[in-house]
TrEMBL record:
TM ranges: 6-22, 29-45, 51-68, 80-98, 110-125, 132-149, 169-188
InterPro entries in the record: YphA_Bacsu
Biological source species: Falsibacillus albus
Signal peptide start-end: none
UniProtKB keywords: Membrane, Transmembrane, Transmembrane helix
Name of the molecule in the record: Uncharacterized protein
Pfam annotation, one family: YphA
């Protein structure tokens, strides 16, 4: 079922925010409310001229735009360059998969996730929040480019369709896992170094 990974991830975030986070944390209400809103609006699509847009894609884009507005001018320029790079790379990857799918080693969805995770990490983000904002905005923008191209070919499509939301959810999950493993490795290494210094003393 298209969108199943997206739904499961959001359900997990909602459970985490509602039942496991401390009540006095500001992020608790935001995570619970947004995840629930994205779950409720999942089946809905709005039409704009000749295009159809999945409602969760609009909500995610608005959240990212609000977050970007808080950055400095220089940070906005850096993020703009990065998200243009990722969005054109993402849409180009989708067009290549459409016109010549023979080169795909595994299913397109998983190849797309691998591509997104690699290119996002190559851009050298240090801040996880900026990395996630860039991912969401880039995939949304790239999907718009891809949908406009298909529309001109007479192929109807939905911007931010369930398959795209799955790609976004799984890419986010992989990035979080990579960051988590890196943090755990750094902690263990620091602890090991501290232990060696203690022995030397």
């Amino acid at each position: 079922m298209p969108g199943i990974f997206y739904l499961w991830l959001l359900w997990g975030v909602w459970v985490l925010g509602t039942f496991f986070m401390e009540r006095n944390k500001r992020e608790r209400f935001f995570l619970s409310f947004i995840s629930l809103l994205l779950l409720i609006t999942f089946p809905y699509v709005v039409e704009f001229k000749d295009y159809q847009i999945q409602v969760p894609a609009i909500i995610l884009a608005i959240i990212c735009i609000i977050q970007i507005s808080k950055y400095s001018f220089l940070e906005k320029i850096h993020l703009l360059i990065r998200y243009i790079t990722v969005s054109f790379g993402y849409s180009g990857f989708l067009f290549m998969a459409l016109y010549d799918p023979v080169w795909l080693i595994v299913e397109k969805k998983y190849m797309t996730i691998i591509f997104l995770v690699i290119i996002i990490h190559l851009l050298g983000f240090k801040d996880l929040k900026k990395m996630m904002v860039c991912l969401i905005i880039s995939v949304t923008q790239g999907d718009i480019i891809y949908s406009v191209g298909l529309e001109r070919l007479g192929i109807p499509t939905v911007i931010g369709a369930p398959d795209t939301l799955d790609t976004l959810a799984l890419s986010s999950l992989v990035i979080l896992m990579v960051k988590g493993f890196a943090a755990a490795a750094y902690y263990l290494e620091s602890k090991q170094q501290f232990g060696k210094k203690q022995k030397q003393i």
